[in-house]
Amino acid sequence: MAKRLSxxxxxxxxxxQACMFACTRRTGEGGLAASCIGIRSAGGIRKGFVVVVxxxxxxxxxxxxxxxxxxTFREGGGVRLRAELCIGCGNCVEACPFGAVFWDxxxxxxxxxxxxxxxxxxxxxxxxxxxxxxxx
Amino acid sequence: xxxxxxxxxxxxxxxxxxxxxxxxxxxxxxxxxxxGLGGAGAGIRLLEExxxxxxxxxxxxxxxxxxxxxxxxHYPLASxxxxxxxxxxxxxLGESHAGGRSAxxxxxxxxxxxxxxxxxxxxxxxxxxxxxxxxxxxSALWGMRNAYxxxxxxxxxxxxxxxxxxxxxxxxxxxxxxxxxxxxxxxRHFGRLGLGAVFGSKQLKALVISGKRNLPVADRRAYRTxxxxxxxxxxxxxxxxxxxxxxxxxxxxxxxAIGALPTRNLQSGRFEGAEAISGERLAADYLGRRVACxxxxxxxVHLAAxxxxxxxxxxxxxxxxxxxxHEPIYAVGSLLGISDPPGMLRIMDETEIQxxxxxxxxxxxxxxxxxxxxxxxxxxxxxxxxxxxxNAEAYIAATERITTQPTPFYQALARGVEHAASLYGGSDFxxxxxxxxxPGYHTGPGCHLGYLTGARHSHLDSAGYSIDQKAVQKGxxxxxxxxxxxxxxxxxxxxxxxSLVVCFFARGIYTxxxxxxxxxxxxxxxxxxxxxxLGTDILQRKHAFKAREGxxxxxxxxxxxxxETPSPAGPFDADxxxxxxxxxxxxxxx
Lengths: 136, 590
Ligand code: SF4
Ligand code: SF4
Fold this sequence. Notes:
The complex is a heterodimer of chains A (136) and B (590). Chain A has 136 residues and is an alpha+beta fold. Chain A has helices at 18-25, 61-64, 91-95; strands at residues 3-7, 30-31, 38-41, 49-52, 71-73, 79-81, 102-104, 109-111, 128-132.
């Protein structure tokens, strides 16, 4: 069964960015450029946070607008990126209503969650979790 | 340090010429090149270069230096930015640390430090987006009554949501109140020593910093191992638990119980309203949300939700979200005799609206209250504000007047309690140390000696309260030499943490051994011994700067109130303090 990252309870998010740093650390480096998860305030910190993650859509708009088929449907939901096919047009970024297609501004290519769940291991407050996608 | 680590880049911004450029200065950050380590160590070196002897703190010649260290962006809890400048409040070393997102934002923008020079000919705000620096017109933002609004406007106008830090000042900074703060991410501050007034003197309303990048790692496996060790300690160990649950106000009731909670301008160390304003009570009745600094899983920032009705408009309410900590609770709670949480929170809110350091504000108002009661000042001086312990409305009115300065008295108070008392009298109960207002501990001689000797005159310099408390627990008697030595040892090590910009709350986690282990995977090989030597060197540089600007620790003013009001670590007198100061001076030269 395919897995995806789900936002279990956004109201528990403290905005620590531990998940964002974890996602880049997955690659072995520090910093944030490789992160496929984004945390930002919901209009000022006093209003809490928004957690932006790929929700592994059954019919992903990002893949549908890719002119080179660099984004392919993953069985069970979500997409896979074949970077060698990508021409960096950015259509996918525009198509995702959540803003969950992040951008590598050095390579000019999208960065999309691979549903590994590494970030969730570092969320101290149980905001996010890796879960099985229920068949629809 | 790895050669492609962007930390060695220093961004220089000249406000007068509206120019910016980058200089590569690895020696400020790489301890193996001439002994820098970033943060406070880089900051004091840059201050030596940028700030000539005798500089007027509110002149264009005073630099603003913001510096971070090598662990930022790599490890959790390396989340502080160190600001260095000459303080308009004390006329000496200005150093202030803030959390929030500024440290990570600076790192992600690709810099180890920013140096801001000169004075703009019109109000501006700066935007640093990675390599790009923009000078933007802030004339419409200048003079805005409420500093929160400035944040709201910039949040909507500028890009980088989630990755940026917005540093801004309120009207207090514009008007040169010498303890005006710089607010970052609404709830964190470069609070002490008047960085806000230095921003104001440069017509610099705000600074927005953002960026996104990867940081190089030399040994990926070791990096992840040390990371996990630190992360586990931060999230699971007892060391961090108190900050995480109740937050810093966990201290309010224990301090009161031992008679160390400064109350009514330190006329007492016990406050009958301590329970009402304690961390436990605030958490139960008001805690609305907890938030974290960037890359900190602890989330010690506690926000109170305060629902206020409009008195004359039924069914109209507003809900304020206010950050609270031990120090603000002490400064505008017990020190002002305020035991109703809504009143206390509204005074805190007013200091935020004005952009004032809440501790200095509380101490100034506490002194003014006593001065009014003793007839040293009159209602004419206070602009008819009936300052009285427990009267929150009066304190809210007076807080705004510190900014607007309707009378010569408020003009004096806007320069701090030491200055005001020098004009009006009442120095014996003016709670300032080296010109900086008192923090929230009256545990014994150790805490006061810490305020007196610390390079920033802050409780965070050397944690003197902990020396007192340990002595009480062990039933030991303190000696002047013993206290001096303990303070110096602690302050030296804290220079290392302040250079790495590790949050001091994580000092129990970032031991010398862990620091060595954490630096290795990112390409810095160093021994614990060298780290200690660096700490000693950095503190010496700060002392040298202060001596150059006229500070003499043996000649510092001692307010009699601190030994007149009993403290838990037993009676002490001016002689004890004087001996300890002499000892501190001697040891620090060794
Ligand atoms: S599941 Fe993996 S790829 Fe997706 S955001 Fe988390 S760490 Fe990144
Ligand atoms: S780790 Fe959890 S609490 Fe922290 S920002 Fe991510 S989702 Fe929020």
